[in-house]
Amino acid sequence: MRFTAHPDAVARLVQNLLGMGYVVVGPTLREGVVRLDELAEPESLASGVVDIQGPGSYATAGGSPYVFSAVNGPDSAKKYFHPAEVELVKLTEDGQGVKVVSTFRPDRKYAFVGLRPCDLRGLQIFDKTMLVPGLEDPVYSSLRKDSILVVANCTRAGGNCFCASMGTGPEASSGFDAAITELPTKLLIDVPDKNVGLFQGIGLNPATDEDIRLGKKMIEAAREQMVNGIERMNLAESMYAGMESPVWEEAAERCLACGNCTMVCPTCFCNTVQDRIDLRDGSVSRVRTWDSCLAKDFAYSAGGNPRLSRMARYRQFVMHKLAYWPEEFGDYGCVGCGRCVTWCPVGIDIRATVKGVLAGQAGITQEQAGVQIV
Questions:
Q1: How far is residue 292's CA from residue 261's CA, in Å, rounded to a whole number?
Q2: If DSSP codes are grouped into helix, strand and coil, which group holds residue 321?
Q3: If you ran DSSP here, which 8-state letter would residue 15 be given?
Q4: Which of 16, 94, 289, 314 has the fewest CB atoms found within 10 Å of its own CB?
Q5: d(CA 141, CA 128)
Q6: Alpha carbon distance 242, 169 (integer Å)
Q7: Total count of domains within the chain
Q8: pLDDT value of position 224
Q9: How far apart are CA 129 and CA 137, in angstroms?
Q10: Do 299 and 305 form a contact (C-beta atoms < 8 A)?
């Protein structure tokens, strides 16, 4: 069902969710960066803040009349459903023997307000890896359960956005509990019948055909702003064929192997497990932390390390998103959010890398394809 409401309905929705016992997460301004953070009150939303993004650059400005003006920052829902560090189990020993002091138990349920369509799609892709029947990740599944996802459809594109070319935005089509499109004077809200109760106490009016047309027009304007994307036609096959392209080495010459791209990516799930000893009480805990395929020792095993070079590790990151993932899960691991471009310290652009590889397959030069890797 589609309704319209006054723009202050966002604040009331946050209050409703807080009252229902949810930990509400939304875009907030922290030290000049729009972060997905817990909201203690609706006033914490980064209302009117606009993000200005480019390769390796990020800034914010104010003055927008819209609540959800900033497209995205470095955070995605992964930060909450797949925490960067989580204690899986803690053991202690006394005269009675070894005891399990604690295991992971979720103590909260999350509601996201203002999640972008690309990040919603990223979460759906994440589900495919973390909720495989019989192999469910217990941390992820317990935190993901009963979560509420309120999406903000995009009416402007960020400087590095290319979700339109990946088919993941700028409009959410399914998988949400409610979707909001900000019109100039009101909100257009798409909400399934079963979730109308989330808007209790909020004046909802049936959306008119003109409201819906205007929403589509504004979303289409955002789509048209994304002129630099990735061509998906036969993409995986072409990337496999370009495994030995010189483009990989050209990009790797700039790569710092810092892992920023994997940390901010909404679908990267790699992790490692550490055993820690607390000298204060002698307890031992097993902790899972994020890891990155860009790390030099990530692929190390008893047989050695097959990816010692930065080139091999950078190629692994890109190929996993655009070739290996479709083969394993039937979907791309890239949602076109552009975070890996923005938060790369040297501004490596995955779109340029892919276009350079594809240009080689087509027998044309990078210059002819309009690609600049370095």
A1: 9
A2: helix
A3: H
A4: 94
A5: 11
A6: 28
A7: 2
A8: 97
A9: 9
A10: yes
Q: Given the DSSP bridges, would you call strands 148-152 and 178-182 parallel, antiparallel or unpaired?
A: parallel
Is there a contact between 259 and 294 (Cβ–Cβ < 8 Å)? Answer: yes
Q: Are 219 and 181 in contact (CB under 8 A)?
A: yes
**Are the beta carbons of 237 and 94 closer than 8 angstroms?**
no
Q: Is residue 97 part of a domain?
A: no
> Alpha-carbon distance 46 to 67, whole Å?
7
Domain containing residue 248: 235-274+293-362
Q: Determine the 3-state secondary structure of 143 from DSSP.
A: helix
In a domain, 185, yes or no: yes
Q: How many other C-beta atoms are found inside a 10 Å radius of the C-beta of residue 244?
A: 11
pLDDT recorded at residue 361: 72
Mean pLDDT in order along the chain per 10 residues (374 residues): 95 97 97 96 96 97 94 96 94 85 86 98 95 94 95 97 97 96 98 94 96 98 96 93 95 95 96 93 93 92 88 96 93 96 97 92 60 55
Amino acid at 242: G
Q: Which amino acid is it at 222?
A: A
- Mention every residue, 6+ apart, whose C-beta is less than 8 A from residue 153: 117, 170, 171, 172, 179, 180, 181, 215, 219
Q: Report yes or no on 243 lying in a domain.
A: yes
Kindly report whether the peptide bond that precedes residue 170 is cis, defined as omega within 30 degrees of 0: yes
Amino acid present at 63 = G
